[in-house]
Amino acid sequence: MARVVIRGFENGPYEVNVDGKAIYHLCRCGHSENKPYCDGHHKKVEFKAPPFELEITK
Ligand code: FES
Q: Looking at residue 34, what DSSP letter applies?
């Protein structure tokens, strides 16, 4: 079974990580011009959010 972890980077995007490999970086700030993916705009808008980590298991 794959180990799936969703991370929220401090002041940055969500990372979808499968078996230790980052698969996607998804926009968390709402300002990406390439949604649903992060394009770095969170830095320009000085997005603030706490880090978190969630492991999904079945
Ligand atoms: S989190 Fe990076 S552009 Fe939104």
A: S
Pocket test for ligand 1, best of 31, 33, 44 (most atoms within 8 A of CB): 31
- Over residues 23-48, the pLDDT tens digits come to 999 999 999 999 999 999 999 999 99
- Apex CA 50: angle with CA 25 and CA 9, to 5°? 25
Statement: residue 58 has pLDDT above 80: no
pLDDT of amino acid 1: 86
**Could you tell me the distance, in angstroms and rounded to a whole number, from the CA of residue 36 to the centre of ligand 1?**
9
For ligand 1, which residues put their CB under 6 angstroms from it? 12-13, 27-29, 31-32, 38-42
Which tokens belong to 12?
Answer: 């940055």
